[in-house]
Amino acid sequence: MLEAAIKPQLDQYLQLMEGDVVLRVSAGEDNVSNEMLELVNELASMSSRISVERATLERTPSFSVNRPSEETGIVFAGIPLGHEFTSLVLALLQVSGRAPKVDADTIKQIQSIEGTYHFESYISLSCHNCPDVVQALNVMSVLNPNITHTMIDGAAFKDEVEAKEIMAVPTVFLNSESFGNGRMSLEEILAKLGTGPDASAFSDKDPYDVLVVGGGPAGASAAVYAARKGIRTGIIAERFGGQVMDTMGIENFIGTAYTEGPKLVASLEEHVKEYGIDIMNLQRAKRLEKNDLVEIELDNGAVLKSKSVILSTGARWRNVNVPGEAEFKNKGVAYCPHCDGPLFEGKRVAVIGGGNSGIEAAIDLAGIVKHVTVLEFAPELKADQVLQDRLHSLPNVTVITNAQTTEITGTDKVNGISYVSRETNESHHVELEGVFVQIGLVPNTDWLDSVERNNFGEIVVDRHGATNVPGVFAAGDCTNSAYKQIIISMGSGATAALGAFDYMIRN
């Protein structure tokens, strides 16, 4: 079951187990059950601390991870391989007694949660966003006996996925009610449960020298460069890592042949923490005002002050803004082909957008779904020619240019897409089950009134990263930079930090 190359590394991890673990297995006669049995038996053969027992659980095939005399509430329904193999290994270590890598304040928050919480997360093994959710909920189950979590592989439980009309992963249910969709960190889950910090938690913070708003590559770079100057630095991040957390493969980060978004973000966060930077995660800024100091007001009402501010709020997926898009989000309308593509296996889908991201999505989906229809507004595709050549070689792809999407149709979920030909002005309708929107990004600058922005909403900066407001700088995808790339964002973050430092020593 496990590849030979994985076993030596897995063996090293299993040696870190601190106590015994019992895998209670509920299996039938189907292929998935047989493969699951093969996996758990192979794990047991590699460590004397792991034993296997047959049991009857809520779902078959599934298995729970427990201490010999205690049910931890962690269950894997399906086979946790692919991106979820790490989730399984961490569950084994944590259930065995090895402490999870969570700070003391977060542990206290989890342990103080009262009531009964049964989480169910529906995932796909190809989803790079899902492990964050699975691992966070598993940690909560380990630390609090009132919390349980079952990971459910949608491919192994298709009937259940269809019945609940789940069309995006990860999808989380809490006590049988919808709880959330998409990547969620442990801190975000706790915030949704109402255990996050309020304005009083920020009331005693002294003014910063540099306050960075945004925790993506530009923000992380800016914070590191500022902190290295020995000045008081803070970061406000709605989600540390930003859009990069949703990026699968990164092959153009110079010096690193290949990495993935979450891995890069983990490295960025680790680097930032090396400098004692005050990281305020899960906080959204809603107002900027320049007085003697620059003031940033947060959604929770707290006001932070700083001698200088660097705006690195990044960008978000651009919506096509037609009827049906919002109504059917996660009900057939999706934005991440890597995550949600497997849920549309054997179905018909459309991709809106003919740029690199759209054509890459279409190529990816063509290997999974029955048919892909690409809709491009312009007279021709904008993607690189090598991608277009690959696309046109696929037998189950139709490309429609000069197409203006007018509506995404459906009842309880998507059943089609309508468009108008810009050449003939004729209306057309395509019957399908899924729509992937891939039309670029829009800057997260809607909340800024006093800072100059261009027609696209991008913050206008000079060569030092300075805006029109003294003491306010900006960097990354939220600015009018010529190109939106991770490495360019990092460079602009460094430029803005040096610009802010120069501003302070001169003022």
What does this entry look like structurally?
- The chain folds into three domains: 7-192, Glutaredoxin; 205-316 and 445-506, FAD/NAD(P)-binding domain, CATH 3.50.50.60; 333-437, 3-Layer(bba) Sandwich (FAD/NAD(P)-binding domain), CATH 3.50.50.60.
- The chain is 27% helix and 27% strand.
- The chain has 13 helices and 27 strands.
- It has helices at 7-14, 31-46, 85-95, 104-111, 130-143, 158-163, 186-192, 217-227, 261-273, 337-340, 356-366, 385-392, 486-506; strands at 21-26, 50-54, 62-67, 70-77, 117-123, 147-153, 171-174, 177-181, 208-213, 233-237, 249-250, 259-260, 278-281, 285-290, 294-298, 303-311, 315-317, 333-334, 348-352, 371-375, 397-400, 403-410, 414-421, 427-431, 434-437, 441-443, 472-474.
- The radius of gyration is 24 Å and the shape is globular.
CATH top level assignment of the largest domain: Alpha Beta
Remind me, CATH topology of the largest domain?
Answer: Glutaredoxin
- Helix count, DSSP H or I runs of 4 or more residues: 13
- Strand-residue proportion: 25-35%
Could you give a short description of this structure?
Helix content is 27%, strand content 27%. It has 507 residues and is of the alpha/beta class.
